[in-house]
Structures are given as structure tokens and as C-alpha cells.
Amino acid sequence: MLAPAPSSKIRAEPAGAMTPPIAVRDLTVLYDGRPALEEVSWDAPPEGLVAIVGPNGAGKSTLLKTILGLVPQAHGTITIDGKPAGRGERIAYVPQRSSVDWDFPATALDVVTMGLYRRIGWLRPIRRADHEEARRHLDAVGMADLADRQIGALSGGQQQRVFVARALAQNARIYLLDEPFAGVDATTSRIMTDVFRGLRENGSLVVVVHHDLGSVASIFDYVMLLNRRLIAAGPTATTFTPANVATAYGMPQEPHPLPLAPVC
User: Fold this and answer.
1) Domain shared by 210 and 81, yes or no
2) Domains in the chain: how many in total?
3) Is residue 76 located within the same domain as residue 180?
4) For the chain, what is the largest distance between any 2 Cα atoms, rounded to a whole number of angstroms?
5) C-alpha distance from residue 123 to each of 96, 116, 224 (Å)
6) Which of 82, 105, 113, 140 could form an S-S bond across to 134 if both were Cys, CB 3.0 to 4.6 Å?
7) Domain of residue 60, residue span
8) Residue 11 falls within a domain, yes or no?
């Protein structure tokens, strides 16, 4: 059950004087007349790994979809590098695994090649060089040996890695991922973490809906705590506190709460 949202309106501090890669202003989203997000304002940091954390029903996935322009019943504004959101030229998106049709007759290589379509053109033939590039992205996530395997025949972790490889193929500036670590094996978790860190080193912004509180501090540079309203946002070291987590999840605070230990 969703905990009551705080009554006070909180806005995350701007990432700096430069135009933020994602700027959300007074965002409210309604589903069947009920708020999924309420007056959320947030400036993404220029680059780095950002975790969006909150209970089920907090609006985490809704926020990503609204940034992508996929939610029509949204009020407020979202800009990408100062321009209206929804065009997607510089954004790669990895949806939840549960939203994908895994019976679709495509191989892992086919799926990753789809990430090149924006550059190739939808009606243009796929060249050998395109397939070679797709294989390089599969290799980056440890899936080159299974390039010709039907996507539905892969394990959950392998499927997730293929979709991360498809995102890499888009050569984006911003990456939005909806619970990529959910239900994956330790190998997949390690590989994806390494890939995300590599993107950070190249100056990309990686925004991840994340459910494992124990690993937030060990993976992410920044955190956004959400429960329909913005609870807190900023560097993980100063923002991911027991008090903020308790507020986000609607939990009573202990007099001396234990610190959240990172999971390596």
C-alpha cells in the first residue's frame, strides 16, 4: 500500500549553472484521475549514475516514461538539454523485462541491431558492418557467444544484458533503465555495473529505477527518493540517509537507526 505523500513540496537543488541534461518542473501525472506523480521538480546531474528509489506505486516508472514523452496525461514541463522532452534523439531506454514480448521471433543480434535503426534508417538495408557493430555491443555485455540465440531462449539475466547492449548501440547521451537489476544473476549484475561505470567515464548520464536498497551506496553517485512527490535528491553520500529512506517508504524511524550497509 502506498504511504501518504508528504504535504510539503520539495525541489531538488540544481546540478549547477549549466543547463541540466534533464530538468523536470512541477510535474503531475494522473492515472484515472488519481495522482501517480505530484508536483515533482528535479534537475539531473550533468553525468554519472543516478538511482530512483521508492516503494511500489511511487511513480518511478511513470517518471521515466514521462521523460520519454510516453505519458499524455502529464502536467508540468520536462526539458532535455534545455529543449522540450519527447524527441528521444539523445536518450536510450531499457524497459522492465515484464513489458517485453519474449516470444517475438528475433535473435539477440537482431535485438541489438534494432538499436542502430535510428542511424541506419528504418527502410535501409542492414549491412555487414552494422551486424559487426551489434556484435561488439553484445561482446561488451558478455553475450557475443549467444548472438544467434532466440531472445526467448535466454535466461532472464541474459535477456537483460541484450537489452542493455541494444541501448549501447544507440550511442546516447542519456540512458534511462527501468529496474535492470531486478531478478538477475550475480554475473549480470556485475557486468551491467561495469558497463554503467564505463558510460559514466565517457560523460553519460545513467538514470536507473532501482529496488535494492542495500546496493544503492555501492553503485550510484546520486539518488532520487520518490513517493509520488520528491522526498530528496542529491549525492548518494549525503542524501541516501536512513531518515530520507524512512520518509520515502512511510516507515517509522527508530531512535538510532542503523546505517544502510552497501553490498559489494
Assistant:
1) yes
2) 2
3) yes
4) 64
5) 28, 12, 40
6) 113
7) 1-90+173-186+195-250
8) yes
What is the crossing angle of helices 186-201 and 156-169, to 10°? 10
pLDDT digits (tens, 9 = 90+) for 141-196: 999 999 999 999 999 999 999 999 999 999 999 999 999 999 999 999 999 999 99
pTM of the full structure: 0.85
> Residue range 74-87: average pLDDT?
85
Residues 85, 154 share a domain: no
